[in-house]
Amino acid sequence: MDDFSLAADLVREAGLLAARMLDEGLETEYKTSVSDVVSAADHAAEDLVVARLDEQRPEDGLIGEEGHSRPGSRTWYVDPVDGTYNFLSGIPYWCSAVGLVDDEGPLAGAVYFPARDELWVGGRDRPTTLNGVPVAPLEDRPLAGVSVATYFHPRYTHDAVRTASWNAATSAAAAVRMLGSASVDLGGVASGRLGVFLQGNLHPWDWYPGAALVIGAGGVAEQVTVGATTWQLAGNRQAVADARTALRG
Fold first, then answer.
1. CA 30, CA 26: separation in Å to the nearest integer?
2. Which phi and psi angles does 141 have, rounded to 5°?
3. Dist CA 126 CA 12 (whole Å)
4. Which residues, 6 or more positions from 24, have their beta carbon under 8 angstroms from its beta carbon?
5. Ramachandran region, residue 123 (left: φ > 0; alpha: ψ -120 to 50; beta: rest)
């Protein structure tokens, strides 16, 4: 089984398991704050993915949001439930995601969005598909003509540089959306529903799966450091360049 087929199987199985456990009832656990939450479904879905990778890709490394880790020449990043706050709040905007990274960056990504039964798969050497159908290649459009999918936690409002950069980039866009799942957002960018993705200091499991999808759709995914913040940007080349300029300005 190739990497893309394996990634697709992993996220679909993990997403369906999490959805089933949610239907059966879950308790919320808190990590660092009231919005940083986890459940038994996160752990069970990650365990499922890790067991499959142990069997299918024992030579690869992996890093999971819920704590699994091992070294390897390539690394699978696993987010068993991306958007756990939504997941546990009854908001159906969440997904399961995996991304495979090598020395050159994002190689493959897969995102399964259970609420719509949508599966994105793609990456550096494979055009991105949505439920098996190739997405339209991303065409250059200015930031002023597209939406930006983003998030800005209230705890960062005291950081003047970070706030100014975020305000500059988002105010230059046609519309702003905060939806609560980075990987679903990035799938939306790859398929043209959203224009640009922008977040700061993301964990790698939140970034690499969807970044691979945008790359596979003919877009770009890059990281831009301004002050103490490394911004993750993805979308069509022109809009990303506009956002980069705004962040640095």
1. 13
2. -145, 145
3. 19
4. none
5. left
The token pair at 133 is 């159908």
Under the phi-then-psi rule, with left for phi > 0, alpha for psi from -120 to 50, and beta for the rest, what region is 235?
A: left
Tokens representing 163 are 């706030």
Written as one letter, the residue type at 233 is L
Nearest Cα to 36, choosing from 78, 66, 68, 70?
66
Q: What does the pLDDT look like over 166-199, one tens digit per residue?
A: 999 999 999 999 999 999 999 999 999 999 999 9
Distance CA 134, CA 122 (A): 9
Buried b / exposed e over 48-73, threshold 16 CB at 10 Å, is: bbbebbeeebeebbbbbbbebeeeee
What does the block give as tokens for 248? 């640095």
